[in-house]
Write a structure and sequence with these properties.
This protein is an alpha+beta fold. The protein has a domain of 43 residues: YefM-like fold (3-Layer(aba) Sandwich), CATH 3.40.1620. Helix content is 33%, strand content 16%.
């Protein structure tokens, strides 16, 4: 656990189930809890206005490749779209 989690009160699944009213009142007053199941931390119960934990950036995003990198050349047809669609529709009949 981090140092910030050690100050947060631990709350077992059983305590949450049996004393949910008290716990929700405490959360509405600004207290936070680490939820445990069998002594193993499984989640946090924090007030809605609590700041979201900062996500560490492992590496900056880079844009590589894309469709242009595939080197696909477009085929240009002398026929219009309407003529091509008419041919395709005619094949279904």
């Amino acid at each position: 656990m981090e140092a910030s989690e050690s100050a947060i009160e631990r709350l077992s699944q059983r305590e949450l189930r049996n004393e949910s009213g008290r716990v929700l009142r405490a959360v509405s007053e600004g207290r936070s809890f680490v939820l445990t199941n069998g002594g193993v931390p499984v989640g946090r119960l924090v007030p809605l206005d609590a700041p979201a934990p900062a996500l560490p950036i492992a590496r900056p995003a880079r844009r590589e490749g894309g469709w242009a990198a595939l080197g696909i050349r477009r085929r240009v047809s002398g026929r219009g779209l309407a003529a091509t669609l008419d041919d395709l529709r005619g094949e279904r009949l």
